[in-house]
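From the methods appendix. Each design record in this collection lists the discretized structure first, followed by the designed amino acid sequence. Records were kept in a plain field format so they could be parsed without special tools. The example shown here is representative of the layout used throughout.

RECORD:
C-ALPHA CELLS (300 positions):
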C-alpha cells in the first residue's frame, strides 16, 4: 500500500515537473519581452535590467508615431469586430431557427474561407478592392473639393482606407463567428421567445429584452475571436495600407525592425508590449463569457 502511494506521488511529481518545464519554455519569450521593454540598454540575450525605466515606452509615443499606430489599429480592428458581432448575431439566429435544406451546405461552404490560406486570396482580393476603390473615387471626386478628397478616401477607400480594411477583416473572420453564434442559439430554448410573443412583444422588444441579453455570451466569444484574429493580422494591413497616416501597430513594428542596421531591441520590445496589451485586456473582459459559451451555453 505504501509503495503504491509512493509510486503515485512520484508519478504526479514527474507530471508537474514536466508541465513546469514546458510552461517555463513557453513563457520565456514573454519574460524577455517585458524585461527588454523596461531596459534602456536592452540586448539580444535575457538579462535583468540594472534599472527599470519607461524610456522605451516614451520613445514609442514621443519619437515614433505609437499613438497613431495604436489608434489606427483600434479603429480598424474595433470596427471589424463590431461588424462581425452584428452580422454573426443576426445570421447565427437565422441559421439556428431555420430548417431549410441549404443550411448545412451553406455552413460548410462559408467555413472554407477559413481553410483557404490568406496569401492565396491576396491577388483576387486586391483586384476586387481596387475596382470598388476606383468606383468610390469616381463618385466622390466631382462632389468634394480637391483638398478634402484624399482625407475622405482615407476613411471610405477600399485601398489605403479604413473602410476597405474593416470590411476585409470582417469578411475573413465572419464565418467562424457565424458558426459560434449558430451553435450558441441552438442551445437557447425557443420557449423564451414564445413566452415574449404570448405577452404581445414586438420583434424589436423581443430583440432588445430577450434575444440580446441571452446572446451576450456568444457575442462576446465570437467578438473576442474576431478581435484577436484581426489584431494579429499583418498581411492585409501590409498589402492594403500604404499611407503613413494609416499605419497600424504590426506595420510599426516591421518598420522599426527594418529602419537601422543595428536592431533597437528595447524599442521593439516596448512596441510589442503595447501591441499585446489590448488583446490581453479583451480576453480578460470576455473570459467569463467565453467559458459560458463553450461550457454549454444556457441551460433550462
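DESIGN:
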Amino acid at each position: 500500500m505504501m509503495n503504491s502511494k509512493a509510486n503515485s506521488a512520484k508519478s504526479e511529481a514527474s507530471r508537474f515537473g514536466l508541465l513546469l518545464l514546458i510552461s517555463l519554455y513557453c513563457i520565456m519569450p514573454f519574460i524577455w519581452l517585458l524585461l527588454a521593454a523596461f531596459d534602456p540598454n536592452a540586448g539580444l540575450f535575457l538579462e535583468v535590467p540594472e534599472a527599470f525605466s519607461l524610456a522605451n515606452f516614451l520613445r514609442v509615443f514621443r519619437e515614433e508615431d505609437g499613438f497613431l499606430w495604436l489608434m489606427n489599429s483600434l479603429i480598424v480592428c474595433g470596427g471589424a469586430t463590431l461588424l462581425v458581432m452584428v452580422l454573426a448575431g443576426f445570421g447565427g439566429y437565422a441559421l439556428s431557427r431555420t430548417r431549410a435544406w441549404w443550411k448545412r451546405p451553406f455552413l460548410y461552404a462559408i467555413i472554407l474561407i477559413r481553410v483557404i490560406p490568406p496569401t492565396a486570396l491576396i491577388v483576387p482580393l486586391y483586384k476586387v478592392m481596387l475596382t470598388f476603390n476606383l468606383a468610390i473615387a469616381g463618385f466622390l471626386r466631382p462632389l468634394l473639393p480637391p483638398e478634402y478628397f484624399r482625407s475622405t478616401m482615407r476613411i471610405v477607400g477600399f485601398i489605403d482606407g479604413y473602410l476597405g480594411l474593416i470590411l476585409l477583416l470582417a469578411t475573413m473572420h465572419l464565418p467562424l463567428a457565424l458558426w459560434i453564434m449558430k451553435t450558441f442559439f441552438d442551445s437557447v430554448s425557443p420557449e423564451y421567445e414564445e413566452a415574449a410573443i404570448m405577452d404581445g412583444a414586438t420583434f424589436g422588444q423581443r430583440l432588445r429584452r430577450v434575444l440580446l441579453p441571452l446572446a451576450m455570451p456568444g457575442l462576446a466569444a465570437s467578438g473576442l475571436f474576431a478581435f484577436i484574429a484581426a489584431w494579429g493580422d499583418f498581411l492585409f494591413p501590409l498589402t492594403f495600407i500604404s499611407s503613413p497616416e494609416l499605419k497600424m501597430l504590426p506595420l510599426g513594428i516591421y518598420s522599426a525592425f527594418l529602419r537601422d542596421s543595428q536592431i533597437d531591441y528595447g524599442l521593439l520590445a516596448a512596441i510589442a508590449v503595447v501591441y499585446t496589451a489590448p488583446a490581453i485586456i479583451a480576453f480578460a473582459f470576455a473570459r467569463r463569457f467565453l467559458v459560458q459559451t463553450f461550457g454549454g451555453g444556457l441551460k433550462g
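APPENDIX NOTE: The radius of gyration is 24 Å.
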